[in-house]
Amino acid sequence: MSVFTIEAGLAFLGLVLLLVEAFKPDISRRTLGLTAIAGTVLALVLFVFAKHDTASLPGFIQPWHQLDTLALFYKGFALVITILVLWLTLECAPYLTRFTVDGKLAEMFSLPLIVCAGMMWMASARDLVTVFVSLELVTVSFYVLVAFARKSAFSLEAGVKYLILGALSTGVLVYGIAWIYGATGTMSFDGIAKALANPATSKTAALFGAAVLLCGLGFKVAAAPFHMWVPDVYQGAPTPVTAFLSVGSKAAGFVVLTRALDAFLAEGSIISTEIQSLLLVVGSLTALLGSLPAIFQTSVKRLLAYSSISHAGYLLLALACRDSVRFDLSSGGIVAFYLATYLPMTVLGFLGLGLMRANGLGEDIKDFAGLAKRNPQFALLMTISFASLAGLPLTAGFLGKLFVFLGLADHGYWGALSCAVIAAAAGFYYYFKTILAMYTTEGTDAPALTLSGATKAVAGALALAILILGVYPKPLQKVLTPVSATVVAK
Amino acid sequence: MSVLEIIIALPLLAALAVWLGAPARAASLGATLLNLIIVFITAVQYSGKAATGLAFTYSRPILDNPSLSFAVGADGVSLILALLTTLVMLAAIWQIQDRPAIFYVSSLLIGGGALGAFLTTDVFFIYAFHELALIPTFLMIALHGRAEPAQRKAVAWKATIYLGAGSLVLLAGLVWVVLEFSGGSKLTFDLEALRNQAKLTPLPDAKQAQIFFVLLLGFGSLVSLFPFHSWAAPAYATAPTPVAMLHSGVLKKFGLYGLIRIALPLLPQGAHVEWVQNALLLMLLGNILVMGLVTIHANRLDDTLANSSVMHMGYIFLGIAAGGEIALKGAVVLMFAHGISIALLFGLCGRMRNQLGTLEYNKLGGLATHAPAFTVLFAFGTFASIGLPGLTNFAGEVMIFVGSFTSFQAGVLSNLQWTVILALWGVVMSAVYMLRAYRSIFHGTPTTGLFMIDPAFSQRVPFIMLATTLLVTGCCPWLLLNLMKSAL
Q1: What residue in A sits closest to B123 (Cα-Cα)?
Q2: Contact (Cβ atoms closer than 8 angstroms) between residue B485 and residue B404
């Protein structure tokens, strides 16, 4: 079975679930949710055992799709995050349905499947058309998901903001694609790389096109100065959707960025110096503008939103460091590694927020007060998640940051490195402020928190993943290492 | 599998077990006692060995390139510090009474983190374990410190900001070291590989000095090197007793250990380049003289102890600045001695506060009448702190002073020798403030009618253990020196 069939099947399952809900309105949301999860798990299993070379794809799709290590990694990544988000939705369902029009959640189970298919296609995109189509599939589905809790004014506000800015960024993206096509005469990444190596190509046009394209993608990954939508949208969207946006949508944006930058910064490219400086500046700004405002947040959800911006900054900086002989991982590999460590800690954090809501508590730092007394296990899990997000050594989060810092130091980008270090220091402050709140003795009279067995199992697995990746990252590096080989070969 | 891995894992596993509901006191005490026995046997084994250098090594690669591995290994210095850690851990945990489980968990984590930092030989893990130990320190000061909530939070944040910034400077220095000494095509964090490369291709002196200075600032602020010391005194005075014992006694030694373990071997000339040496000498004189005067003016016991702990770091820095073999070994002996004596004093101080509710000198007096055993134990700590011959601190201080005052020529004194002459006045200051504390607390007549009685024997055991250690290693310092046969 080819990978493409699995992806198509996943999108098809999404459509079927949508229809079932429309024609059989009395079906329970649990059945729908479990079907969606079962379908995605099945897709993951099939994906692991499917053929993993480009030749196995159907002939008509081969010119546009490739299956290199990077693509395979991000496809698996998309499947895993979708499973977790679906499960998180099921977990938050009793709370979420209070804000939906008819108490139904069907689209919350079917749209993620379609998003997942879109992300999987995006991972193997070979040219800008495929990028654009799959990116839109993802973004349009997210418009619906963000505004899903329609009775909540916050969710509506988030939906409108995301729609307007998303549509605008799509326009900018298409504009950039058009300029690049005009300058290089091709849409495929390989072709663009070749054309950019040719000194006859118009440098101004190519540079303008590339810069506009990066602006468009910058919206999607929340790079400064296009990051202003993130706090409001993340805060307003239902928590599972926020987790999906923060991990899935970000990963999708970065796989496209990796592909595009491989082309723009390829050997002999006429625009590589400018694009690289642009990345360093934007990356440093993003890290700082995400981290510093986070210091003043009182809502943990908003805090996570700001921190997610600063994580995007580190990832951009990683992309600015091109291949170095002193690392097995290429810049794309480091980004993938970082995202793989980012997945468990972010999902665990949002899972915690969702559980707080499900237990009738708020999402502010003061609501976390005394959590250790009320449920020590839950407090321990949250501590692991936040410590890893802060980048405490021996957790997964530290290794990702260490790679970025080492890469910057190796290339001698001292300015960017100091910005990244300042941002990381600020991160320590606001995450530990939250951790500290959990262990204070105030607020211990608030209602106790209960977790179901399944919740404990999933949360425990995520925490374990954070700790294991933090001390034994070798397997993950092995999965990602061929990435560097292919990238360098190009 | 190496015995060192067991030593590191035991406290961490015990902490996990207690957190998940195991009986806190029994599990913590059992694990710590067992660990002390294992460390002791390991140290005896090592001192019997003819060959020196790293022993009990074992390495588990966790990443190929950049090359990272969970590598353990110990030489005399790390074993002395491991002994110090397990001794202080046992005392700190033993003296906890009627406190929630988090006291045991945090003590185990601080001790386990310190053991990890002292016994691993991969720069990544050395750094990581130290951070692991710092977190519970901050949390405990903020949550269970002995002050009003707002004040203890402020103290905890101050320590966090100083130590966090220090850690970041340290990380920058370590990354610099890794980039400079990795050599060839592969980045490595393995200390032995870095050392070999440093021997093969030493850096020019000027560059060594720069890197050394960054490391000195990073490690130094962790050890409350003047002028990055102002977090330390309030933090120790506020911290819950076991945390004060463990941080001032054990964890603070990490910065000194790092200088001896990482900075000196990799950058042998770094400390001797003139501007670095002068800067270091000025800073350590700040520790000894300025903090000495500050300590004399303290009028509460916890203030005196906290400031004296900052002051005594100056002597150890002096040994590091001198860099000769005798001075360095003296620095290690003094690290051990100071750790034991300050833990003893903080432990007793915490007990006094629990019984009396105050530590101000003008409210106390004549306590020796009803608490003779307590007074004797306190006297051990006092006299060790002053540097009385027969207790370990004396051995360390003498070695440092003698080792630093080498190659004397009449008429021309080097900056180092001037520093030694000035630093000797620190001993006088120590005598002034410690004897004053001792006199006003235990002798004379009680001014407010406050009195205390001796703790039950089972509660005296941890302090007796520490006092005995001071006496034994003070009379026979060769027990420690035998562990450091090779040159440092």
Answers
A1: A393
A2: no
The model's pTM is 0.86
Angstrom distance (rounded) from CA A470 to CA B71: 15
pLDDT for A487: 43
| Cα B185 → chain centroid | 37
User: Which member of A392, A405, A472 has the closest CB to residue B131?
Assistant: A392
How many other β-carbons are positioned within 10 Å of the β-carbon of residue B439?
A: 13
CB contact under 8 A, A436 and B176: no
Length of chain B as a residue count: 488
From the list B28, B233, B219, B6, the residue with the least C-alpha distance to B130 is B219
Q: What are phi and psi of A53, to 5 degrees?
A: -130, 155
Per-residue pLDDT of B184-240, as tens digits, reads: 667 888 888 888 888 888 888 888 999 999 999 999 999 989 888 888 888 998 899
DSSP string, B246-287: HIIIIITHHHHHHIIIIIHHH-TTGGGSHHHHHHHHHHHHII
User: Which segments within B53-111 are labelled E, that is strand?
Assistant: 55-63, 68-74
Cβ B102–A428 below 8 Å, yes or no?
A: no
Cβ distance B187 to A409 less than 8 Å, yes or no, reads: no
- Residue with token string 């941080």: B247
pLDDT digits (tens, 9 = 90+) for B250-278: 999 999 999 998 999 888 888 888 899 99
Adjacent-strand bridge partners of B63: B68
**What is the spatial distance between Cα A194 and Cα A186, in angstroms, rounded to a whole number?**
10
* Interface residues on B facing A, Cβ-Cβ cutoff 8 A: 19, 61-66, 70, 102, 124, 127-129, 131-132, 135, 138-139, 142-143, 149, 153, 156, 160, 164-165, 168, 171-172, 175-176, 178-179, 182, 185-187
Residue matched to tokens 């990272």: B68
- Sign for the CA dihedral angle at B254, B258, B261, B264 comes to negative
The Cα–Cα gap between A314 and A396 comes to: 15
Q: How far apart are CA B177 and CA B265, in angstroms?
A: 12
Q: Which residues of B444-479 are buried (b: 16+ CB within 10 A; e: fewer)?
A: eeeeeebebeebeeeebebbbbbbebbeebbeebee
Is the CB of A393 inside 8 Å of chain B's CB atoms?
yes
Evaluate whether B340 touches B385 at the Cβ level (below 8 Å).
Answer: no
DSSP letters of B403-439? HHT-S-BTTB--HHHHHHHHHHHHHHHHHHHHHHHHH
Q: Which chain B residues are Cβ-neighbours of A428 within 8 angstroms? A: 164
Neighbours of A47 (CB within 10 A): 20
Instruction: Say if residues A371 and A446 touch (Cβ distance below 8 Å).
Output: no
CA separation for the pair B283, A452 (Å, rounded): 57
Could you tell me the two tokens for B155?
Answer: 């103290």
Report which of A379, A270, A261, A377 is spatially closest to residue A320, judged by C-alpha positions: A261
Burial of A143 (0-12, 13-18, 19+ CB in 10 A): middle
Contact assessment for residue A325 and residue A446, using Cβ atoms and an 8 Å cutoff: no
Asked if residue B404 lies in contact with residue B319, where contact means CB atoms within 8 angstroms, the answer is yes
Q: What's the CA gap between B246 and B252, in Å, rounded?
A: 9
ipTM for this model: 0.80
Instruction: Please give, rounded to a whole number of angstroms, the shortest distance from the CA of A258 to a CA of chain B.
Output: 21
E strand or H helix at B234, and its extent? Answer: helix B232-238
Token pair 């009449």: residue: B410
Selected residue of A330, A398, A428 to mutate for chain B interface (largest B Cβ count, 10 A): A428
Q: What is the mean pLDDT of chain B?
A: 88
Beta-strand relationship, B68-74 and B55-63: antiparallel
Inter-CA distances, A258 with A5, A442, A469, Å: 25, 46, 23
